[in-house]
Amino acid sequence: MAVRALRWAWFALGWLAVAVGTVGIVVPGLPTTVFFVAAAACFSRSSPRFEQWVLTRPGVGPLVRDYRAGLGMPGRAKIAAVTSIVVVCSASAWLAVERWWVRVIILVAGAVGVAWILLRIPTRRDAT
Question: pTM of the prediction?
Answer without folding.
Answer: 0.71
